Amino acid sequence: MELVSYSYWKRNQIKAIFNRFPSSVVTFRMVRNYYFVYSVQWSEMDTMVIREDLKEMEWLLNEELGLVHFYKNRKRAY
What we know:
The chain has helices spanning 51-64, 68-72, and strands spanning 3-8, 13-18, 21-31, 34-41. With 78 residues, the protein is α+β, with helices and mostly antiparallel strands. The protein has a four-stranded antiparallel β-sheet with strand order 1-2-3-4. A hairpin with a 2-residue loop joins strand 2 and strand 3.
């Protein structure tokens, strides 16, 4: 999976598009020093989003933003 595009939205939120789900918009929120998936505006044109996809999305966005160190050191992992 690849991060196609992202944009800052409201305070501490980012909206992103991934190549595996091109018609679905993923909203991330910041918690402490990293971003996590808050919601997915899923489109029926895309395949179902599963938990492993959400983890990969979080990893890719945090890596893009240089926050992967904080993401790896979070207290609670899935």
